[in-house]
Amino acid sequence: MEKRLSAAAIWLLMVLYGASVAQGERTRDKMYKPILGASCFRRLNGTHQTGCSSTYSGSVGVLHRINVEADLEFLLAGPPSPPYAPMIPPHLFTRDNLMRLKMAGPQNISVVLLVNQTNNMQQFSHELNCPNQYSGINSSSETCDATNPAKNWNPWGTGLLHEDFPFPIFYIDDTDEIEKLMQCFEKFNNKDYKTHALRSLCAVEVKAFMSAAVNTEVCMRRTNFINNLGGSKYCDPLEGRNVYATVYPREPLLNDGIEVLRTDEKIIMVTCRLDTVSMFDGVGVGAMDSLMGLAVFTQVANLLRQLLPPQSSLPDSRRNILFVTFNGESYDYIGSQRFVYDMERLEFPPESAHSPPIAFDNIDFMLDIGTLDDIANIKLHALRGSDLAQKLLGQLNNYARASRYGFNLNIQSEISAHIPPTSAQSFLRRDPNFRALILNARPTNKYYHSIYDDAKNIDFTYANTSKDFTQLADVGDFKGLKADSLQMKVRNISSIVALALYQTLTGKEYTGTKVANPLLADELLYCFLESADCPLFKASSYPDSPTGLQLPPMRYISVLGGSQESSGWTYRVLGYLLSQPQPNIPKENCTKLPLHYFAGYNNVGECRLTTQNYSYALSPAFLIDGYDWSSGQYSTWTESTWSQFSARIFLRPSNVHQITTLSIGIVVLIVSFCLVYIISSRSEVLFEDLPASNAALFG
């Protein structure tokens, strides 16, 4: 009987507990409404920390809408119920305004919300005026003058990406989420501002606490110390993968596996940047700042693979072209610095490639494809004049101006220290005499390194023709595209570069009519700007493999274990476009690299001989024991760890309400203590022993 009663009691307690939890969850759901968005986060280098962080338990601020710059004065001149969370549209998200909010301190400003209302926006770039200024060939004004818009590479830059803020900054893109915030503000906050302290107000809580602080040196020291005790990390080095491939397959290592440098091998390097960056986690596709260069890069690779004769037919059969996309270039050239470091030690390609090392003596010259903001105004840059620069410039313009192609472009040259912030700087920093040439357009991107450098910024419209994009096009076949479309502009400059390189390798001028296919540019831009579930990614994957997400791939370098979507898809695409079909090899025998089985354009499957591979994009600073973190020799960027990103709105009680509640609680506590004392001191009277007859009844 007692056991049954005990079980019943336990069951009743469980029911009551479950009901209380459910009721608590329903109450919480009524109190808080989540807000979807993306948060700013913290990165660190050898000397500083940049970015944002909330307090450990989350930062709370009263919503306040900023329509014009004058609205900020209310928040900066002793607001009545601080701290506040201003909702700022992009055109007011300026350096002056953000620094004023920063100076107001967390006492007045605890959260900043960037709302996606772009009506009055004319520019939005929070990179420096001179990106990577201190990690290139030199930091002098000859390379980039931050004070002179005509002599720097990002005239619209505010530098906010490299500032440290004492509050979280949260970006809200969705119109429904923005409307939710505005309705809450209008209903509770947007009236009689002087009485804010006397009533409940709509507030937001943002949780984005960053574990790391001070700089990379301190963070890595703490991380290594904690890890020795089996704990968690505070920060991770920025780390990714470079992707490379050659036009012609290289000879494998000897059977004994001994790495022998082949000094007679001569290689032309064609390079571009793979990554981009923005202030907010997971947002930003870098359409103009690096994707345009990647589109030209892939077009050049595909065109050369189909036009060039067999390697044995070249005047010099030892020549080859190496295509490399460098990752992490936005953060002091991480990928190219590591590439140079590995080449110096004869550790490129990596051991997994099973091919001989490549040294600097093997490099004939480097052609770096930089930012192509304005394809009609491209320059060929070089640090020093040379016969090579003049010869290549002449070849480029020969095809750019040829009436039979109708490209109608004129590529100019600039021989000076005014070198664009591209991967070539890592090579020139090692050796100013290195034969590096850079194709770069004059800067026109007002949204460089930002969330708004997207398809709209480059005026991209997906043609979606469902036609074969892998084959070359005839010069007069526009594939249904307008002559001034973005796809045709990419086709034109890609063809010019590829044909000039064709002439360099073969020693003959190209007189054919085949040029780059604008549909390949159409498909690649669609994949990286709008959806990874796209025809090009499917063609370069294994047949019937899972499709990509209906979102563009992340193109931020990330950290070890983070998203490497961009390099993964680039690896597949570059491998597919530079591979040689092997029609006589069946699927069951096409299983080991360098053989790879692709779905192909028609998704029927085809075996191809590939040359693509990965190399490391981790700064040498994290490999060198006792590295001087403040030396500036190598990139030292790390990313702070965090537990979660979240935002929610709720009704924050007034100060009077909170004081009243606290006062009542204190009174109840005092009364409770008094009652307990009185009852305890009178327990003999209040709880006297029962009579024996009654005790027997209850015994």
UniProtKB/TrEMBL annotation:
Transmembrane segment boundaries: 659-679
Annotated InterPro entries: Ncstrn_small (IPR041084), Nicastrin (IPR008710)
Annotated GO CC locations: plasma membrane
Alphabetized Pfam families for the sequence: Ncstrn_small (PF18266), Nicastrin (PF05450)
Membrane topology label: Single-pass type I membrane protein
GO biological process: Notch receptor processing; Notch signaling pathway; protein processing
Subcellular location: Membrane
Keywords: Glycoprotein, Membrane, Notch signaling pathway, Signal, Transmembrane, Transmembrane helix
Every Nicastrin small lobe domain range: 39-212
Signal sequence bounds: 1-24
Family designation: Belongs to the nicastrin family.
Protein name according to UniProt: Nicastrin
Organism name: Drosophila kikkawai (Fruit fly)
UniProt gene name: Nct
